[in-house]
Amino acid sequence: MKSIGILSTTALFLILGLIVPADARQEQQDKQKKQEQQQQQDKPVAKQQQQQARGQQNQQRQQQRQQQNNSAQQQQARGQQNQQRQQRQQQNDSAQQQQQQARGQQNQQRQQQRQQQNSSAQQQQQQARGQQNQQRQQQRQQQDNSAQQQQQQARGQQNQQRQQRQQQNNSVQQQQQQQARGQQNQQRQQRQQQNNSTQQQDYRSAQQRSPAQVHQQQVAWQGDRANSWQSQHRTWQQRGGYNGYRVPDDRFRSYYGQDHGFRIYSLPVRYVGGHRRFRYGGYWFGLVDPWPEYWSNDWYDSDDVYVDYYGDGYYLYNRRYPGDRIAISFYLN
């Protein structure tokens, strides 16, 4: 910096020397000489200053280099530190993995031990429960057996009482039924006697018929004879079902069926609306179908017939022609 100032001052002096008069040139030259001498004297100082400045610059450069070197060293150190950290991290990770593996093994061992303990405890509990259940079942069975025995005893007593009552009721009912049956049998016998007496009277009256009456009856029966019975007769099902009077079952069994045969000529007869009705067993019945043309002319006098119920209604059967049945209907009057 000093050398730069000196150079600037000399430049100023040269400019002033051009301006000032010539007489002053000597002075100026003297001054210049003095200045030069001074400069020569000052050169070592400037050199020193320059050397100092250079030394300072070198120091600064060295410092910068040192700083750079330090930064590089720091970077290297940082790299080494990072490497060391990474190595430490890897070591820590491996140590953690080993710890985790050891913990996992310990946990497995603990779990196995717990499972074994739990299984043994469960087995013991199950055994204890099984023993308790067996004891409870035995107690319940004993209680149930005792209760069942008591119930059986009570039921046996109740059954005995019921049997005694049933026997008493049966004896009373049997007596009542026997009395009722006796009364019914007496009534049936009385009715049978009455029917027999009426049938005997009808038979006697039929035996006392005159030839004219027999001929008149033959003529009347010829009007009910079929020309083609297979096509003219119809069953009650074909007629839409039986809708006449129904004889009570006990009365029907007493006077009707295969075991109760009779002959039509011996029965009381009446005409209602031009159709004949016959009285037998306390009821009136009439033929709805014509009688077959191949039956004998005096079948009503010579053939045994009976009344029976078949499937859908009442029919008149001829023992000589068992495959034929004539539809009939019952009436109260």
Description:
The protein is an alpha+beta fold and 333 residues long. It has a domain at 216-331. It is 69% helix and 11% strand. It is built from six helices and six strands, in the order αααααβββαβββ. β5 and β6 form a beta hairpin. 8% of the residues are buried. The model has no long low-confidence stretch (mean pLDDT 79).
Outline:
By secondary structure, the protein is of the alpha+beta class. It has a domain of 116 residues.
Global mean pLDDT: 79
Helical content stands at: 55-70%
Count of beta strands:
6
Structural class: alpha+beta
Order of neighbouring strands in the sheet with most strands: 1-2-3-6-5-4
Uncertain residue segments: none
Distance between the termini: 174 Å
Beta-strand percentage range: 5-15%
What shape does the CA trace take? elongated
User: Gyration radius, to the nearest Å?
Assistant: 77 Å
Features:
alpha+beta; six-stranded antiparallel beta sheet; about 325 residues; single chain; elongated; 6 helices
List the helices and strands and how they pair.
Blueprint: H1 2-19, H2 23-207, H3 211-222, H4 229-232, H5 249-255, E1 269-272, E2 275-280, E3 283-287, H6 299-302, E4 305-310, E5 313-318, E6 321-331
Antiparallel strand pairs: 1-2, 2-3, 3-6, 4-5, 5-6
